[in-house]
Design a protein that fits this description.
The protein is α+β, with helices and mostly antiparallel strands. Helices cover 45% and strands 16% of the residues. Strands 1, 2, 3, 4 and 5 form a five-stranded antiparallel beta sheet that branches.
Amino acid sequence: MSSTKPFFTAVKDRRTYYALDSSSPIPDSRIQEIVKHAILHCPSAFNSQTTRAVILLNEEHKKMWDITAEVYKQQLPEEKFNHANQRFQGFKAGYGTILFYEDTDSVREFQNKFKTYEDKFPGWSEQTNGMHQYTVWTALEAEGFGVNLQHYNPLIDVRLETEFNVPPTWNLKAQMVFGNPTSGPAIPDDKKEFKPIEERMKVYGAK
C-alpha cells in the first residue's frame, strides 16, 4: 500500500471503477510486489495457504479478454453477446487483470488432515480468497489505479488453463481488472447509500 495513505482512508476510498485506460501510475514490479505481499500475508484457516493468483499485464491482459469474448460469442445469442462484448472491450481497455484461484488439491489436503473440520474447509477457502481479493483491490487503488471485479468463470476456465499454463487443480474464483480511472466510481460518492449501522453491528461489554 502507498505509504502516504492511512489504512482506513484506503479502505474507505476503495470503490468500483469501470471506465479505465491502459496507463499505469506504478511500475509492473510494484504490481507484482502488491500481489506477492497479499499471497504471503493474508490469513487462511490452519495456515492452509490455498489461494493462487495469475497476473496478466499489457498484451497478456488483452489476450485474456479476447479469449473471454470468443468463448461467450459461442454461448450467447448475437444481441446478448453484442451487449456483453461492450463490457469485455471496456475491461480490455484497462492495464491488467489478476486471476484469483483456489488450489483444490490443497483444500483436500487439509480436509484429509483435519477430518473434524472436513466440511468447513471449502467455505474457509472462499473466505481467504476474498481476503486476498480485498487486500489487492485496496492496495491497487491506494496506488492510483481504478479496479473492478468480474466473474466470468467457469465458461472461460479451460481456455485460460491452456493459454496461461494454469494447473487444472486451480479453481478460478474471480477476475480483477485494473487500469487508470478515466472517470469517477460506478456509484458517485454522493449517491452511495449505507444501511443503518445499528442494523449491522452489535456491541456488548464495551467500556
